[in-house]
Amino acid sequence: MSNTRTTNYDWYIENNFNEYASEWIAIINKRVVGHEKNIKTLIKFVQDKYHGKKPAITKVEGMHKIL
Amino acid sequence: MLTYKFAREEIGKGRYTYRPKALIEIEGNQFFPIVDSGCDTTVISEGFADAFGIKKGEKTELKAFREGFEVYQGKFNIRFLGKEQRLDEVLTDIPCLIVPKEKEYDEDADLVLGIAGIFDKSKISFNLNKGKFTMQRILN
Fold first, then answer.
1. Which fold has domain B2-137?
2. CA nearest to B80, candidates B117, B30, B129, B120
3. So what's the ipTM on this one?
4. Is residue A20 in a domain?
5. Per residue in B67-113, pLDDT tens?
6. Enclosing domain of residue A23
7. Chain A positions touching chain B (beta carbons under 8 Å)
8. CA of A40: how far to CAs of A3, A44, A63, B53, B135, in Å?
C-alpha cells in the first residue's frame, strides 16, 4: 500500500533508523531531512529550510525496551 | 477500516521488538505514534504541545512503573490517515498528558496514543503475526 499519503510511513516501517536513536526525525519524500532531540527545534529547522513543506515527523526510540 | 503496521525495532545487539505504529496527521504534519493499549491516556511532550498550540491545563500525576511525576492535562484533535482521504477518521478532544521539559534531559518525550478518547471510540485489533493492526470507528 504505497501512495503519496503512506509513502513516508511505509518507508519508515521498512527501514532502520538506529543512527537517530532518541531523536525526532523529519522525513520528506523518503529522505530524513532533519533530526533533533527537541521537536520544536526540528519543526523550525524544516520550516526555515523547506518552506511550506509539511514533513512526516517521528521519534526514533533508543535501543532499549520501553514500558 | 484503517490498517496500520508494526515496526520492527532494535532494542539491543541482535534483539528486536515490534511496535504498533499508526499514521496520523496534526496540522498537516504526519506522525507515526505508538498505539499503546496499556497506557491510560495519550502522552505528549511539552515541546510537542508548544509546537501545535495545545494548551496546558491543570496539573496531575503520571505514574510510570514505580515513579510518579507531575504533568499537565490537555486535549487535542487527531486525524487518523487511511490509504485514501475518504477512509480518514478524525477524533476530537482526545485527552492527553503533557510531560514538562526537564533541565537534566534535552530529549523530548515520545508521542504515545493511549486509551482515553481513542480506544473507547474505536475497535482496535492487533495481529502481530500479520504485522498489522486495524482500527474501526465505533458509532455511538
1. Cathepsin D, subunit A; domain 1 (2.40.70)
2. B30
3. 0.89
4. yes
5. 888 999 999 999 999 999 999 999 999 999 999 887 555 566 789 99
6. 7-59
7. 1, 3, 5-6, 8-10, 12-13, 16, 18, 22-24, 37-40, 43, 54-59, 61, 63-65, 67
8. 28, 6, 23, 11, 29
